[in-house]
Amino acid sequence: MLKLALFTDIHYIIDSNSGKRKAHMGRILLRKAILRINLEIQPDLTIVLGDLIDDDASPQAEAQLTELARDLGKLDSGLIVLPGNHDPAPDVFYRILPQLPDPWLDIKDCRIIPFLDAEAPEWNAVRSADDLRRMRLARKGFDGTIIALQHVPLSPPELELCRFNLTNAADVIEIMRGNNIQLVLGGHEHDGFDHEQDGIRYFCAGALCEAPFRYYEIEIDAGRTEIREHQIQWPASLQLMDLHSHTEFAYCSQDMELALTPLIAREIGLDGVAITEHSGQLYFSRDDFWSAEYIHRGIKGAASKHNRRDEYLRQARQLRADDVCIGLEVDCDAHGDPVMRPNDREDFDVLLGALHYMPIHEIRNQDPEKVYDLFLAQMERFTACGIDVLAHPFRLLSVNGLPIPERVWRALLELLRINHVATELNFHHIAPQSEYVRACIDAGVKITLGSDAHQIHKIGELGPHLRLLQELGYDGELKDILFDPRKNK
Known about the structure:
By secondary structure, the protein is an alpha/beta fold. Helices cover 30% and strands 20% of the residues. It is built from 17 helices and 20 strands. The protein has helices at residues 26-41, 61-72, 90-96, 129-137, 169-178, 261-267, 279-283, 286-290, 293-297, 309-317, 344-347, 360-364, 368-382, 395-399, 406-419, 434-443, 463-471; strands at 2-7, 45-48, 78-81, 105-107, 110-114, 118-120, 124-126, 145-149, 183-186, 193-197, 200-204, 214-221, 224-231, 241-245, 272-275, 324-331, 350-354, 389-390, 422-426, 447-450. The termini are far apart.
């Protein structure tokens, strides 16, 4: 079986938002697609069918294409990329992107033939005589599935499935029929279409740059083709909130921009987002944070010259809305107390508590069980301090190679229950403890979903969270188990 991932029509441009076409979000959408393709589809080959950028005449065109090429290099699969009519000419395009296979690519009993059709009036295209000959040769000595790739889609002219076509579509289809070329993949027409006739499947992928921001999974097995549509935009019916998204105030931020967070959240269909930041990083210097000195000194040891909390709050307040909460990721100090000043409680919509440091290595060398005892002792005090959510509850233990015994997660669950604290599903660095999550649901401990985004394209990436709940057998309404800070105000 051959598994393909497919997307098309990114139309990336930095400073343009032209209605439906979210060209200014092109790079973010591309990165989201790549993230999900690597995680969800894991294809043998990824295919991109053109219009990577929006304006090939722009002075920034090659720089924009280079940015996208860098991102495409993060795909875990092989890659075929075609230029579209908005991209630079092939000689420029392929100085930046991987060259096409010539004359075709054979992979897992399939033959993939890419075509660079010349532009024709009214944004149509025409296939050259040389490429028509290549189509006829493709079947010679090969009995597997043949797939044609092109930017401008192909369809039977009499059906008018699309505003665009090859001007010599009838000749192309005749060759396809005569040589049993079963599948043709195109882009360009942003709404897409899917039609099968006389043994040929004509598929045009919807544009990545227009909601719901589509990408595709294609499986080809013994002549059978299955195409599944995936969407970056979440269905509004799910009413999803991402309650853990960082900002440029984080010392560990990579490219976050506080002002963009609500815009991205809305475009991808979130019902709400919480802007959060590490309290230890807002009150302490970079050196004091990374050395864990802030853990030992606690909030009383914070120097006013390092205080960035007020500026963070000032900027975040400008974005507060019905679907935007202002949050704080409250660090736990060495005594189990919050690294947070008393007035922080009233200034934030949601407080996420987090344990980021314990002297694990020193303790486990003496007695590993003492690590768990210290963890629970700190959690007993910390979960009673007024936090709303315990973020990534066992991450610190798991990343240090410690298993989570049932006695430990059951004890923490009880602390959360009696203190009315929710628990977070968080896949940043490590997956949650599934037995613990199921037990929380059964015990009535509320759940939150957090991307823990430190890169802007990871805002709202909640697919693993939803899959875990499905794997645990939860089939009820999400609103019944999810904590929503807006309902507590």
